[in-house]
Amino acid sequence: MRIASRVTHRAGLAVAFVLAVTIATAAQTDGSRAPGGSKEQDPPYSVDALVERAVAYVERFQQNFGSVVSEERYEQRLRRIPIAGNTNVQPRGGGGPQETTLVSDFLLVEVKGEGWLPFRDVFERDGKPVRDREARLATIFLKGGRNAFDQARAVMDEGARYNIGNINRNNNTPTLTLAFLTGRHRGRFEFKLGKRDDAEPGVVVEFRETGRPTFVATTGGRDLPVRGRFLISEADGTVLRSELDALDTGVEAHIIVTYQKDDGIGLFVPARMEERYRRPRDPMEVYGVATYSRFRRFQVSTSEELAK
């Protein structure tokens, strides 16, 4: 079983590849201005006001986080889970690694015409350096003749090549669900207020995908609508946590990301991503936990020099 996402080129070319983001399929809407006031001035916020504020926050976040690189420590393992009513179900799929630990640089890459895409640059696997790192980075970013669509697909596929398990995916990035709160994609979702927990610092906003084609699809082209929830600060729209669920008769996926303030760069950044993937009635699931540290800003500069 493979899960894929439908990527639609601006000219109308549809291409399916493993669980990635739908690029440039939804109409642009204006999310550049957050509603005025503060929590004390105009409570309670309506869901529309909260979403508007969150959209404005995410647009700023992408611009600011686009100049930041972090170190990701990502542990994946296969684990057996109980199947109700049947203790003799055998795992599907062949052999392969049962666990792995990846150490990567994680950042957002802006692809002209396609927006900000998450990029995982794996430089260590199970304690050993990745040998082909320089060559594959050059292929992605320096190879001539690539249009934005091809480069976007290469960026997103690159982070998936080290995943384990029998469900191929490249949606396992901490900033994936933030795309739902952008002008490009917000129109494909319905939002409503969730049940408030006074012990939490924000407001729960639940989302459900209604647009077609869906953000995530199978490689056979079947729509796989997602749903979930955000924990959003009423004061300024900051996303404090995101939860995503995608499931149908062939697969289920769950991703939870928590954000914390990093004083060094002055942003709320991904702190932890927890994920689970499995096929229905398969006793094995992929379980992963990624943590993020060493946030630092970077600048790109070029120079020309005559070789001796």
Summarize the SSE layout with pairings:
Blueprint: E1 3-8, E2 14-18, H1 47-65, E3 68-80, E4 99-111, E5 115-125, E6 128-129, H2 133-141, H3 148-158, E7 189-193, E8 203-209, E9 217-218, E10 226-232, E11 239-247, E12 252-262, E13 267-278, E14 284-297
Task: Give an account of the 3D structure.
- The protein has three helices and 14 strands.
- The protein is mostly beta strands and 308 residues long.
- It has one domain.
- It has an eleven-stranded antiparallel β-sheet with strand order 6-5-4-3-14-13-12-11-10-8-7.
- A hairpin with a 4-residue loop joins strand 12 and strand 13 (267-278).
- Mean pLDDT is 80; it is low at 4-42.
Task: Give a brief description.
This protein has 308 residues and is mainly beta. It is 13% helix and 38% strand. The protein has three helices and 14 strands.
- How do the strands line up in the largest sheet? 6-5-4-3-14-13-12-11-10-8-7
User: Proportion of β residues?
Assistant: 35-45%
> What's the Cα radius of gyration?
20 Å
Q: Major sheet: size, sense and barrel closure? A: 11 strands, antiparallel
Q: Which spans of ≥5 residues are poorly predicted at pLDDT below 50? A: 4-42
Query: Assembly type of the shown chains?
Result: single chain
Q: How many DSSP helices? A: 3
Apparent shape = globular
Mean pLDDT: 80
Q: What distance lies between the first and last C-alpha atoms, to the nearest angstrom?
A: 54 Å
Q: How many structural units, i.e. domains?
A: 1
Q: Indicate the percent of residues in helices.
A: 10-25%
